Amino acid sequence: MTTEWYTLKVHMEVKAVSAYGNNATNADKGPPTRSAITTVQEQLAAYKSIDYMLIPIFTILLGGVVVFLVSLTVGDWDYWQDWRDRRWWPLVTPFSLIIAPAVFSHFFWAKFRLPIAGTAILMGYMFGVWVSRYMNFHVFAGFPMNFTSPSTFIAMGILLDATLALSRSYFLSGLVGAFLFAVVIYPLNWVTMGPFHLPVEYNGVLVTVADLMGYMYIRTAIPEYVRIIEQSTLRTFGEQVAPLTAVFAGFVTLLHYYLWVWIGSLLTKSRWMTKLV
User: What's the CA gap between 115 and 117, in Å, rounded?
Assistant: First the structure.
């Protein structure tokens, strides 16, 4: 009885499978099947659709990672207008901000020959940081948006990617692109920062608009040491604090770029994936 039942079961399965084959009758055949992609044009269109879907996801995801990284390393230097001084803000910000573009520049250039990492990551960063500043600082905490508005960095990513695309060299990309990445941060943001550096008189004391806003909106810590830094020994070089800081920031940023490109080359090797799997 058991052998007959097993033979009947196998016969039914074979019949069900062959119903979709060439030997089945028209009555037994199932619905016609075909590949979703049959021509080269359809294949290219599918590739483009995947790119259109993955590129925004990649941009926003990595931008969110950079938002978290900048919050940990730069923090208040970019949170408030009165913290954006001429000494530490243009030095710390590009030094920290170039980490993710350096790592992913190697990945996208070595694997796909696409010099897009810097621009894509910083565009995602700007999207994420604007959402964060508006929801956390303006809506939740009540600070005015012009006091907590983020700096703009997209042009810095364009310079880095353009240098890599034109030179096709990590060495020149770091020597020129990473150096400019740090040098242009102050003039790039001066259009929006300039009005906050205008002098005003408050209770007989000459302060900037940004300082006055800092006095009106009390936070957990007031950057008094920022004003002490403004009296640093850099004044001995013709009192040109911002240009000297820009040159020094460019030097340390290009070294940081080389370091993280090398780390990116190690992370993109296939042996890491085989070890993890």
Answer: 6
User: What is the amino acid identity at position 248?
Assistant: F
**Cα–Cα distance measured from residue 244 to residue 183, given in angstroms and rounded to the nearest whole number:** 10
DSSP 53-118: HHHHHHHHHHHHHHHHHHHHHTTHHHH-GGG--SSSHHHHHHHHHTHHHHHHHHHHHHHH----HH
Which of 264, 247, 135 has the alpha carbon at shortest distance from 180? 247
Q: Which helix (H) or strand (E) holds 206?
A: strand 205-208
> Which residue type does 247 have?
V
Q: How far apart are CA 64 and CA 198, in angstroms?
A: 33
The pLDDT value recorded for residue 76 is 83
CATH class of the 35-276 domain in this structure: mainly alpha
**How far apart, in whole angstroms, are the C-alpha atoms of residue 79 and residue 187?**
18
Q: So where are the chain's domains?
A: 35-276
| 171-219 tens-digit pLDDT | 999 999 999 999 999 889 988 888 898 888 888 888 888 888 888 887 7
- C-alpha 232/C-alpha 209 separation (Å) is 22
β-bridge mates for residue 206, sequence order: 201
Does pTM surpass 0.90?
no
Paired strand residues for 260: none
